[in-house]
């Protein structure tokens, strides 16, 4: 029998697994790729580059949900990492975007012909960072890293890298960031979500609740959600998420909002508890200065929760909710635009219900686990050389 294809999944975090942080890439890696990609034909292992002050002299394995997750050695001991990669002899690398730490792993792979499938998730050319830099209340640290983008450019020229993308509007950004030819094929391979087939979007009794789902960080501008809650005391607002980096600075900004009576801070939520919040709410508000296509949008639409946002990835906000238009800077002066969008959806109940049904159907048609398994396995098989 032919042995399974060995896939090395590159990501910076693993949604709490192996002592890592919580974030969108980590959620996708742990709860989608590692959970649903493996079968008799595919094995998946996760590779994380060592960060932080504490040195690691050799790769260390954590078993998370039955999947091997490796923290590689610190940079001074990359010879140990090279020996590890040579012994593992992965058939293909799958990267959720390509961060500078994941690039460092690819750069030390002894076999420079090993293929990489780069799943375009959130490419950020300089113009995107210029928009992010308009936030003054709490600046977001830039992780723009030209050596990573140069590596992808050269590897693509050498035939080592191929691409798929989770959203159509990201394709031109990826081509700009990686300096790809205009005719470079980047097929659409949307992020999937786990769908509750028994959920009845037409009969479920939603509440007059508005939710925020995401990390409490500068780029998310959670303070705007709190200002919206202050302006709409007749509705219940719930923040789902907590600070990761820069907790003290984020806490200082958010603390004045803790006393708002119609605003609840639920903290980090997962599993059935998160699903309950998503099902109950009528509206998900996203106030970020920058987004790709967040998984939270897909999770909301799957249960008929509509969108109000200043981001409009692949026109989904405009199609299934209310798009405020671009909101730069700290955004305080644009709070009325969000208030208007929420009122427009909640005050027109019949129209909201129609949109909710259409939103769920879109998710069923486009973002299923089954479609992901079929398309991702085919894409990986297409570039494996053995």
Automatic annotation (TrEMBL):
Keywords: Hydrolase
Molecular function, one GO term: hydrolase activity
Example GO BP: carbohydrate derivative metabolic process
Domain Glycosyl transferase family: 201-361
Protein name: Glycoside hydrolase
Protein's organism: Paraferrimonas sedimenticola
């Amino acid at each position: 029998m032919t042995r399974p294809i060995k896939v090395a999944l590159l990501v910076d975090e693993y949604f709490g697994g192996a002592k890592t942080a919580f974030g969108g890439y980590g959620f996708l890696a742990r709860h989608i790729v590692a959970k649903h990609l493996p079968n008799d034909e595919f094995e998946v292992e996760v590779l994380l580059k060592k960060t932080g002050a504490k040195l690691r002299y050799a790769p260390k394995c954590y078993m998370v949900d039955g999947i091997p997750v490796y923290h590689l050695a610190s940079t001074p001991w990359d010879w140990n990492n090279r020996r590890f990669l040579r012994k593992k002899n992965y058939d293909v690398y799958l990267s959720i975007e390509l961060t500078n730490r994941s690039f460092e792993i690819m750069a030390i792979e002894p076999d420079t012909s090993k293929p990489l499938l780069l799943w375009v998730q959130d490419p950020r050319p300089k113009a995107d960072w210029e928009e992010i830099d308009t936030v003054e209340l709490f600046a977001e640290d830039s992780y723009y890293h030209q050596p990573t983008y140069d590596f992808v450019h050269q590897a693509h020229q050498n035939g080592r890298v191929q691409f798929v993308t989770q959203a159509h509007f990201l394709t031109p950004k990826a081509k700009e960031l990686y300096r790809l030819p205009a005719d470079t094929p980047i097929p659409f391979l949307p992020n999937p979500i786990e769908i509750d087939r028994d959920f009845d979007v037409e009969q479920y009794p939603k509440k007059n609740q508005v939710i925020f789902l995401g990390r409490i960080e500068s780029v998310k501008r959670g303070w705007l959600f709190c200002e919206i809650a202050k302006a709409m005391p007749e509705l219940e607002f719930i923040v789902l998420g907590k600070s990761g980096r820069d907790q003290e600075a984020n806490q200082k900004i958010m603390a004045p909002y803790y006393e708002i009576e119609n605003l609840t801070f639920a903290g980090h939520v997962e599993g059935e508890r998160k699903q309950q919040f998503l099902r109950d709410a009528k509206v998900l508000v996203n106030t970020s200065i920058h987004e790709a296509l967040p998984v939270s949008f897909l999770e909301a639409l799957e249960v008929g929760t509509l969108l109000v946002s200043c981001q409009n990835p692949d026109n989904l906000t405009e199609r299934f909710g209310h798009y405020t238009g671009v909101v730069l800077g700290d955004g305080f002066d644009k709070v009325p635009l969000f208030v208007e969008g929420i009122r427009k959806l909640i005050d027109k109940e019949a129209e909201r219900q129609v949109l909710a049904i259409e939103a769920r159907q879109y998710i069923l048609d486009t973002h299923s686990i089954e479609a992901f398994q079929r398309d991702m396995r085919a894409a990986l098989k297409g570039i494996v050389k053995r």
